[in-house]
Amino acid sequence: MIEILQFDFMQNAIFASLLVSIVCGIIGTLIVINRMVFIAGGIAHGSYGGIGLAFYFGIAPMLGASLFALFLGWIIAYITYQNTSRIDSLIGVLWAFGMAFGIILTDLTPGYNVDLMSYLFGAILSVSTEDLWAIGSVLAIVFTFALLFYKQLLAMSFDAEFAKLRGLNVKFLYFALVLIIALGVVIIIRAVGLILVIALLTIPPYIAEKFTNSMGSMMLLASLLSSLFCLVGLYISYTFNLSSGACIILVATLTFFIQMLTLKLLKN
User: Fold this and answer.
1) More confident position, 107 or 257
2) Residue 213 · residue 204 · CB < 8 Å
3) How many domains does the chain have?
């Protein structure tokens, strides 16, 4: 493991993994306890429209994806806050629109020759110093949001109606949470791609939930688990020359099934 640290690209990948893991731990916990997995999935896949826009207009792909994801997140928050019926269908439509829109724009882009696999399945080994600053900036936003609104998020997550009766501005908090999720999702796409992003967001919190009794400890354990999955996945990827995003998710899913089986055997 030590010899791979001599390469700059691997150092950047490890730093990115650790930063992304903290984002996953915080946002993933909020997604899981608020049952917003499908919302996060809609934003993740729909954000491909922003990547297509970025290529078409010649701007940074992650910037385009971030702006489009924020726009999409606001629409989804507006639709889902009051209208709880047929949410899955509405998000599915936006999900499909974003991906179709992005694909068409990439087709229309003159001289387009970018490898789509890096956006679909991640390219953490190609993370640059500028990417690290971008990930760090999003992490700072996510961490500050969770720190400032921890008690309010806790109240909304476990009993939104009671929190509203106590005077909490649930609508503002819900919209802010969806937009923070949108930002986090785009950054995580850089690591594992938009196809696999939901797995990294949900598997660590799902496992952490079984061994913690507070939202804060769940965030912490989920961040540690995500870091472990990323580091082990990177090592496997480097050793066997495999896709890094897929290796990270494979480690996460195997751990999830082992944990499920172990708990089931202990109960019996």
Assistant:
1) 257
2) no
3) 1
